Amino acid sequence: MFFYVETGFSSDTHRLQFIPARREASHPAVTETQDDEDNLQDQIRRRRKTEWKRRQGGQTFLDHLIINVRGGNGGDGCVAFHREKWKPMGPPSGGSGGRGGDVYILPTPNLTTLSSIPKRIRGAAGANGQGTWQNGKNAPPTIIKVPLGTVLRELLPGDPRRAKDEWEAEEEGLEGLGPEDRRAKLRDDRWVHYPRYADDNINRDVFKQAEASLHREERARRWARKQRALSPINVDLDKTEEVVISDDAPLGTGRQEWLGQLVARGGSGGLGNPHFLSPINRSPKFATRGHEGERITLSLELKILADIGLVGMPNAGKSTLLRALTGGRAKTEVASYAFTTLNPIVGVIRVAEDGTFEGALQGERVFEETAIEEERLRECELSETEDQDQLLRSEDTSDAEQRTGHHFDIHETFRFTVADNPGLIARASENVGLGHSFLRSMERSLALVYVVDFSRPDPWDELRDLKDELEKYLPGMSDKAHMVIANKADLLGGDGDQKAVDEAREKLRRLEEYVKTEMVVKTADGERILDVIPASAKLSQNTKKVVRLMQNYVQQARTAQV
Ligand SMILES: Nc1nc2c(ncn2[C@@H]2O[C@H](COP(=O)(O)OP(=O)(O)OP(=O)(O)O)[C@@H](O)[C@H]2O)c(=O)[nH]1
Ligand SMILES: [Mg+2]
C-alpha cells in the first residue's frame, strides 16, 4: 500500500541500479578485448616504474602527486524531548547536525614543490546536534595550498589509481551480506533512534514513510553528483584570483576571500527529530545521520616555469652546460652514465649589459663530473687543515669568489632561467628510459634548446629522434626549438692537425645542412631556421655566444607576450 514498497531503498532490486559498472563502461580507457586490456595494464605498470625510477633519488622535489580528498562528514541529528517542570510531555527538541567542511585547493606563489601536500585529505566533520534545539556547528573549510602552476585533474572511473567514491565505498561495505543484514546496515548508517526505540520505530508506518522520502532525496543527490561527474575537474591553477566587490554592493556583504578551487563538498548535517513532527506523529523518536562528504581522487601536476628548456639525449652534457652557464651554482649532478638527472632542475642565468654572464667571470674553469669535483674539494680541505697558512690563503680566495658574484649584482641587467631535463631517448613516448612525462614542465617555457653530443658519429640522428619525441609528447611542441648546441666540440679536431680540423668543420657543415633542410620550424610569420652552435660545456667554450642567443630568444618571446 505504501509508496516505499515499490521504491524504498530497502528494496534490493532498486539498489542494484546504483552499482558503478555503468560509469566504468562508458569510460574510454576500458577496452573491449582481453589483449587491449593486457596492453593497458602493461603500459600502466611501465609508467609507474618509470615514475618511481625518477623519484628514487629521494629528492624533495615532487612534480606529480595523486591525492585522495574527502569532504567532511555532516554531523548527526539528535533525538531529544523538551523537559520542564509541569510539562510532562514536552515537544521534540533535538538539534540538527552541522555541515561537513568543504575542501578547496588554493594556488600560492610561496610554494615551489608538491612535497608538502598530504596524500590523504579529509575535511573537518560537522558537529552533532544536541538537545534543547541546539544545532551542531558547521565545519570550517579545509584549504590546501599548492604552488602556482599546478594542474588539477580528477581521475575517472576505470583508472586503477582512483580510490572509490562514497557510493562505491558503501557498496563495498555491504558485500557478502544477505538482504536482511544489508537492509539493517543501511538503516543503521542513516538513522539515529531514541534509546531502546529502534525496533519499535522500524515497525511504525511513520518511520517507513520517512525512510521512503529520505530515499527519494538520496536518489536526487546521486543524480546531481553524477551530473557533476560528467564534467570532471581539470583546471590549471596558474593565477590567484581576486574577488572584486563592486562599490555599490549592499552594506555588510564584506570582502570575501577567494578560497581556491572547490574540489570536494562536505556532507550536509542530519535532521533532528523536530523535523519529523506531523499531525500523525506527535512524538518522533528518530533523527537522521549526517551525510558523508564527497570523495574524489585528484592528480596534481606541477609545471615548473623556466624560460628555456634543454632537451637532449642522456649524456649529451645538458647538466654540465647548465653548470657552466650558472658558474657552478646550479646544483645538478653530472656523471658519465645515462639518466644522471632524474628531475628537471632550474638554474638562473644573470647577464650584464656587455654580454658577460656570471659563469664567465670565473675565468678558465673546467666543469668536471660532480663526483670528481667533490673529490678534489675534499682533498683541498684536507691539505688546508694541515697547513695553517694555506688555510688563510684559501679563505682569501673563497672570499674573492664570493665577491665576484656579489659585484655582479650591480652589473646585472638581464636574468632568465634555464631548466636542465632528464635525458630523452627514442621511444620515450612508450615509457622507454625515463619516459617523457617530465616534458610537461617544458610546455610553458618560452624556448627549447637541443643539446647533442657532437663527438658521436651521427649527431643528426639524435636530433631527429629528439624532434620526434617532442612531437609525440605534444604536437607542435618542437616549434618552440630555437637552437642546436653541438656539445663536446673539444673532443673533435684532435691535436689541432689540419686533417682532423677539416673533418670537424665538415661534420659541422653537415649538421648545419641537416638542420636547415629537416628541422625548419614554422612560425606565425614564415619559417625559422635553428641556430647551430658548436660548444664545449666542460671547458666553457663558446658559452658566451650561447647565452647571448638565449637572451635574444627570451627577450623576443617576452615582448611578444606583452
Ligand atoms: N669532453 C667533454 N665532455 C663533456 C662535455 N660536456 C659534458 N661532458 C661529459 O659528458 C658526461 C655527461 O654529462 P652530463 O652533463 O651528466 O650529461 P646529461 O646530458 O646531463 O646526462 P643525463 O643527465 O644522464 O641526461 C660527463 O662525463 C661530462 O663530464 C664537453 O663539453 N666536453
Ligand atoms: Mg643531466
Automatic annotation (TrEMBL):
CDD domains: Obg (cd01898)
UniProt organism field: Rhizopogon vesiculosus
OBG-type G domain span: 306-555
Designated name of the protein: OBG-type G domain-containing protein
Keywords: GTP-binding, Nucleotide-binding
GO molecular function, one term: GTPase activity
Domain of life: Eukaryota
Residue span(s) of domain Obg: 59-305
Cross-referenced PROSITE patterns: G_OBG, OBG
